[in-house]
Amino acid sequence: MTYDTLILGAGAAGMMCAAHCGGRVLVVDHAKAAGEKIRISGGGRCNFTNMFAEPANFISGNPHFCKSALARFTQWDFVAMVDKAGIKWHEKTLGQLFCDNSAKDIVKMLLDLMAQAGAELWLETAVEEVSREGDLFQVRLVRSGRSMTVEAKRVVLATGGKSIPKMGATGIAYQIAQGFGLKVTDTRPALVPLTFSSQPFAGISGTAIPGRVRAGNGSFDEAVLFTHRGLSGPAILQASSYWTEGDSIHMTLCPENDWMALLRQARTDTPRRQIGTALAEHLPKKLAQLLDETWGLQDQLANTTDKRLSEVAALLADWELTPTGSEGYRTAEVTLGGIDTNGLSSKTMEAKDVPGLYAIGECVDVTGWLGGFNFQWAWSSAMACAKAIAAEG
Ligand SMILES: Cc1cc2nc3c(=O)[nH]c(=O)nc-3n(C[C@H](O)[C@H](O)[C@H](O)COP(=O)(O)OP(=O)(O)OC[C@H]3O[C@@H](n4cnc5c(N)ncnc54)[C@H](O)[C@@H]3O)c2cc1C
Fold first, then answer.
1. Closest ligand 1 atom, CA of 36?
2. Where in the chain is the domain with CATH 3.50.50.60?
3. Which segments of the chain belong to CATH 2.40.30.10?
4. Selecting from 3.10.129.10, 2.30.40.10, 3.40.50.620, 3.50.50.60, what CATH number does the domain 2-189+334-392 have?
5. What pLDDT, on a 0 to 100 scale, did the predictor assign at position 204?
6. How many angstroms is it from 147 CA to the middle of ligand 1?
7. Residue 393's pLDDT is what?
8. Low-confidence stretches of the chain (pLDDT beneath 70)
9. pLDDT at 144 (0 to 100)
């Protein structure tokens, strides 16, 4: 059994590549169904791209690496594909595009395109090992409990990252890449809730507010959700990709508010109130109560100096918190880091020193922000690879 191209992983990137690379193609995946992460993504509606996608929305050891693929297959190219398939979509917020009906429509579109291209798909087939003899790759697979070897001229690593092992994530792409001498950067969970061992927010779990969260050199204005174990919500998930263990994060509560002006006004309007009580006018009551207890805001406004008010305003504008950890790969939407881009061609995704070996999608050290960017990277990197393979004939 010799294939022109053997694609490992029938996720977003693998299916997209199989649908467009031409030749005799086999896609293998150990899951029962293809595109499982697409199916569950975006609450079942798949946030398949972002209208504003650009290289600045991606984190990588080499921020220039993603530019070529993103420019040659853009969000609008994917939207055109979705339109052609008759899939209706809408913008939810911040340029995030979702299916009107179901994420399953995207999976079906990709499966239909693969079928039209004549690509074979073997499900419930686990990849065990990849080696190379002469011009051909030997891929050891376990299919329905039986071990077998398939040969191919080219192998495309598209098995994704380590996030959500329960859904079949294995990180095997890293091992295979390393086996061929490629470097793999440190990997860690990203787009993930942050946790605090003391569970300081357990009592206000479920409370959400608008926030600005900064970690490392990332800053995001979106909702923050207080949870039993710590913090979540889009602003926190985004910031988690810039956070490293031991570091603190900085949070502005309701960044639209001019806290000093609001506190001064409260002192004029309701001088007998305590600071904490005044805050409850502008924050969810439970959160105001927690801040009251944590920061000692029992002073009566009438007796509060401007200096004290500006101290409180500064805390509200720059609350420093040090998470003890994250929820980890169990719930992380993506894996940060991966196959070092220095070893890959940004034009074709082929390993520079291993002709015929390609890596696409999440297994590569390119990680998108929350909001459809990770799927866009899967589509764009897959198309760069597919076009290069198709051009070889
Ligand atoms: C809950 C959740 C929601 C998400 N929502 C969004 C969203 O709305 N928008 C967005 O842009 N991104 C979203 N993401 C991220 C997005 O799903 C991934 O970035 C994207 O799926 C990566 O595509 P991929 O093809 O590289 O990997 P995957 O889609 O993960 O595909 C990899 C495939 O390889 C298979 N595989 C792994 N190991 C083996 C092995 N040893 N043998 C055989 N097969 C193997 C897996 O079964 C899987 O099918 C979400 C992620 C999660 C977890």
1. 49
2. 2-189+334-392
3. 193-327
4. 3.50.50.60
5. 98
6. 25
7. 79
8. none
9. 86
Which atom of ligand 1 sits closest to the CA of residue 373?
11
Is the CB–ligand 1 distance for residue 350 below 6 Å?
no
Ligand 1 atom nearest the C-alpha of 376 is 11
Q: Please state the pTM of the whole predicted model.
A: 0.97
Class of domain 193-327: mainly beta
**Three-state secondary structure of the chain:** CEEEEEEECCCHHHHHHHHHCCCCEEEECCCCCCCHHHHHHHHHCCEEEECCCCHHHEECCCCCHHHHHHHHCCHHHHHHHHHHCCCCEEECCCCEEEECCCCHHHHHHHHHHHHHHCCEEECCEEEEEEEEECCEEEEEEEECCEEEEEEEEEEEECCCCCCCHHHCCCCHHHHHHHHCCCCECCCEEECCCEECCCCCCHHHCCCEEEEEEEECCEEEEEEEEECCCEEECHHHHHHHCCCCCCCCEEEEECCCCCHHHHHHHHHHHCCCCEHHHHHCCCCCHHHHHHHHHHHCCCCEHHHCCHHHHHHHHHHHHCEEECCCEECHHHCCCEEECCECHHHECCCCCEECCCCCEEECHHHECCEECCCCHHHHHHHHHHHHHHHHHHHHC
364 lines ligand 1 (CB under 6 A): no
Q: Which of 7, 27, 37, 162 to mutate to test the pocket of ligand 1 (most atoms within 8 A of CB)?
A: 37
